[in-house]
Amino acid sequence: MDRRPVTPPLLDGHLVVDRAGFRLDVRLHVAAGEVVALLGPNGAGKTTALRALAGLHPLDAGRLRLDSTVLDQPDARRFVRPERRPVGVVFQDYLLFPHLTARDNVAFGPRRQGLPRRAARARADRWLDRVGLAGYAGRRPRELSGGQAQRVALARALAVHPTLLLLDEPLAALDARTRLDTRAELHRHLTDHAGAAVLVTHDPLDALALADRLVIVEDGRVVQEGDPATVTARPRTDYVARLVGLNLLRGRADGHLVHLADGFAVPTADRLDGDAFVVFPPTAVTLHPDRPGSDAPHTWPATVAGVHRHGDHLRVQLAGPVSTVADVTPAVAAGLRLLPGQQVWASVAAGDTRAYPVGP
Ligand SMILES: Nc1ncnc2c1ncn2[C@@H]1O[C@H](COP(=O)(O)OP(=O)(O)OP(=O)(O)O)[C@@H](O)[C@H]1O
Question: Half-sphere exposure (CA, 13 Å, Cβ side) for 172?
Answer without folding.
Answer: 13
